[in-house]
Automatic annotation (TrEMBL):
Native organism: Pedobacter kyungheensis
NCBIfam families, per the entry: PPK2_rel_1 (TIGR03709)
Pfam families reported for this sequence: PPK2
Domain Polyphosphate kinase-2-related, chain residue ranges per copy: 30-267
Family: Belongs to the polyphosphate kinase 2 (PPK2) family. Class I subfamily.
Keyword Lipid metabolism: no
Molecular function, one GO term: polyphosphate kinase activity
Family matches, as Gene3D superfamilies: P-loop containing nucleotide triphosphate hydrolases
Keywords, ordered alphabetically: Kinase, Transferase
Biological processes annotated in GO: polyphosphate metabolic process
Name of the featured protein: Polyphosphate:nucleotide phosphotransferase
Length: 292
């Protein structure tokens, strides 16, 4: 990984603070340089995906979390545009359905995990259960958890257990061959405001805006506290958080692509090598085709 991206990793060895994280950091890149670098990174990602798919040993789960208008959708579009759709799947999680509420909070996310050889992208994820649900604890009541009959029961011990459930879930996945990459796109409140205004001014972007976005913006400080807690509680050596400066979309996209590329390279992926018997069959098949 390039040095400018190493500082974007939170591994839980010391307390992380969002206040000390620069949302407009660009690592010495300008827009044109970043675009060129992204093109090269996407080419490399395509090659690595092919090896991942062929080897069939690992799966990759990429998680995107962010405030509204931070650029999750565009990051997925630009970074993943060079991947083979056959080996990639994207899930955008919304409010749980009635069926999903009848199971534990991890159930619907477990169902959406990628198979070995494939890359799964979760646009929002199981972390919503310690983010939006922490800002709006009344949402937890819809889960109908035994003993949780009112918001007063949703205390520090409740959240401690929920963080533990997430750590156990991710530890289980990594132990069984899933590589987890978690990205928090850290956009400033001022930049979010400008992007909201852009959506309102541009008729082609009006559909992206919701009045509910403004209501959630009013809870900015509570969300920042929830994100900070989640990052500190669930960053581990095996599945660390990557906090991406998101005020400059072109830098965020490059940082995400480089981090994914670096992680896949560390897997030392190789195309399967056929055994002696399989090679003999290939030779026989070749000779048969040439003899036609």
């Amino acid at each position: 990984m390039k040095n400018e991206f190493k500082g974007l990793i939170v591994q839980g060895d010391k307390k992380f603070s969002l206040k000390n994280h620069k949302t407009d950091f660009t690592g010495g890149y300008n827009k044109e340089k970043a675009k060129d670098a992204l093109v090269n990174s996407k080419i490399e990602l395509s090659h690595l995906q092919e090896k991942l798919y062929a080897a069939g040993k690992h799966s990759v789960l990429i998680i995107f979390q962010a405030m509204d208008a931070a650029g999750k959708d565009s990051a997925i579009e630009h970074v993943m545009s060079g991947l083979n759709p056959q080996g990639c799947q994207v899930y955008s999680f919304k409010v749980p359905t009635t069926e999903e509420y009848q199971h534990d909070f991890l159930w619907r996310h477990y169902k959406a995990l990628p198979e070995r050889g494939r890359i799964g992208i979760h646009n929002r994820s199981h972390y919503e259960n310690v983010l939006v649900c922490k800002v709006h604890p009344e949402y937890v009541l819809s889960e109908d958890i035994p003993g949780i009959t009112d918001v007063k029961k949703i205390n520090k011990d409740f959240w401690k257990q929920r963080y533990q459930s997430i750590r156990n879930f991710e530890q289980h996945l990594t132990a069984n061959g899933t590589v987890i990459l978690k990205f928090f796109l850290n956009v400033s409140k001022d930049e979010q405001k400008q992007r909201f205004l852009d959506r309102i001014e541009d008729p082609t972007k009006n559909w992206k805006f919701s009045s509910g976005d403004i209501k959630e913006r009013a809870l900015w400080d509570k969300y920042m506290e929830a994100y900070e807690d989640a990052i500190n509680e669930t960053s581990t050596a095996e599945s660390p958080w990557h906090v991406i400066p998101a005020d400059k979309k072109w830098f965020a996209r490059l940082a995400i692509s480089e981090i994914i590329e670096d992680r896949l390279k560390n897997l030392d992926l190789k195309f399967p090598v056929l055994g002696e018997e399989e090679n003999l069959k290939l030779t026989e098949t070749k000779n048969a085709l040439l003899a036609e």
